[in-house]
Write a structure and sequence with these properties.
This protein has 443 residues and is mainly alpha-helical. 64% of the residues lie in helices and 0% in strands.
Length: 443
């Protein structure tokens, strides 16, 4: 697959067939994990979707969505759920699962096309979508992350196809939905200042427009627990501000974990102190400033070279691996997830496009099978660390020791690993922004 391609020879038909069979098998795994398992689990687990549903139903009844105490999201989250909020809750949950699955599958299809539409792109995307952690969890919880995933990929498409309006609208809508995607503006600005301004304007417009309908209902007109947006030391909050909050309230060896670690995922049961809020905001601000500066410097170094440093396939509009804008956008996602005061484990679904981008770049640049194997193993380890630490790290720890500090090294490692790996992922993406020599294709 690689050695022949590096020499310019075509891939043997038998090898192509093997790759096609592997892609088909992974697609079957994806269908099993993203449809069959979530459908079976819907009635067994509570869902974050219940908060969206209750907020949307109240809004439809002429009441404030923020009467729902655990609805601490921007109002656009309730607005996009309104089309299914007229259904009884069990049926609405199934309908939302289908919507989320369509967003998840659609983002994968668009990403394959964006990365070249060849076997390498299909294999990278299907493998990550099929085997990546947090995919079933997002669908069972009814989170909006699959919607965000589609919006992020749409922003990639707009940036790559030079469709400023699409990129701006996607970033703007995503920012109004969850706020943290606003960091993507830092990835756009070094390349297209006007596009960044347009995206910023779209974000402000979507935020304002989504808040305006609240004026027609009784108060409250904002979350009653909005201080929660400044962070929480909850064990499954995987960001560096969260790590800082846990360090500020450490557990004693062998004793029960602090109450803030155990109840910090409930905005009604946890209240952030002023000092904790300042600490979390300071860590987030520092990371965003430093990461934004790194993106700016790396982006400005590409002036006049973007899109001309080699391709992953043939020319004619196919994905150019040397296009630094895509790496910048992927880096911005990792930066945002590491720096956001609230970054739950299931947010790591948004890391998958960046990992697919690296897989395509590294395999295209490799000249031997050893390089391919090493690169893919490294990416697999990174993907597992980012998307499965909640299960293989925190989950395994709690299953063995419960909510106690019986094994401090394991506890600190499992609760701090994901944001560290997010910064590693950020660094890898920034590194790939530099000009690359031309390399051969693998079809």
């Amino acid at each position: 697959m690689l050695e022949g391609a590096a020499a310019g020879s075509p891939v043997p038909s038998g090898r192509r067939l093997g790759i096609d069979i592997l892609i088909a098998g992974l697609a079957a795994v994806f269908l099993y994990r993203s449809l069959w398992l979530p459908f079976q689990a819907l009635r067994l687990f509570d869902a974050d979707f219940q908060n969206y549903y209750q907020a949307a139903a109240r809004w439809l009844a002429g009441l404030s969505p923020y009467e729902v105490g655990r609805f601490d999201y921007p109002p656009l989250t309730a607005l996009i759920v309104m089309p299914v909020a007229w259904l009884p809750y069990p049926q609405a949950r199934v309908a939302w699962l289908i919507v989320n699955w369509l967003c998840l599958a659609g983002s994968g299809v668009v990403l394959v096309r964006l990365l070249g539409g060849d076997r390498r792109a299909a294999l990278a995307v299907v493998a990550l979508w099929a085997l990546g952690g947090t995919v079933p969890e997002n669908l069972v919880l009814g989170q909006v992350n699959p919607v965000l995933l589609l919006l992020v990929v749409a922003a990639w498409w707009g940036a790559r196809r030079n469709r400023s309006g699409l990129a701006a609208m996607a970033i703007g809508f995503a920012t109004a939905l969850k706020l943290w995607p606003g960091v993507l503006l830092a990835a756009v600005a070094p390349f297209h200042r006007r596009r960044a301004v347009a995206a910023g304007g779209a974000a402000v417009a979507f935020v304002v427009l989504s808040w305006l309908p609240l004026l027609g209902v009784p108060p409250p007109h904002s979350p009653t627990t909005k201080d929660y947006w400044l962070g929480t030391p909850a064990l499954l909050n995987f960001s560096l501000p969260a790590v800082a909050l846990r360090l500020a309230d450490p557990p004693a060896a062998g004793e029960a974990l602090p109450a803030s670690w155990r109840s910090g995922n409930d905005p009604l049961a946890f209240q952030l102190s002023r000092g904790q809020g300042l600490l979390s905001a300071a860590v987030a601000g520092f990371l965003l400033v430093m990461g934004g500066a790194a993106l700016w410097l790396a982006g400005r170094q590409q002036e006049g070279t973007t899109g001309t440093t080699g391709t992953a396939g043939t020319t004619g509009g196919r994905f150019k691996v040397g296009d630094a804008q895509l790496f910048a956008l992927a880096a911005a996602v990792s930066l945002a997830l590491a720096a956001s005061p609230i970054s739950w484990y299931h947010y790591q679904l948004l890391q998958l496009p960046g990992l697919a981008l690296l897989a395509c770049r590294w395999t295209a640049r490799a000249t031997t099978w050893r390089q391919v194997l090493f690169g893919l193993l490294a990416l697999a380890a990174l993907a597992d660390g980012l998307t499965r630490t909640d299960l293989i790290g925190v989950g395994s720890y709690l299953g063995r020791y419960g909510w106690t500090a019986a094994n401090l090294p394991w506890l600190w490692l499992s609760s701090s690993l994901v944001p560290i790996l997010s910064l590693v992922h950020f660094g890898l993406q920034v590194r790939e922004m530099r000009p690359q020599r031309r390399f051969a294709a693998v079809k």
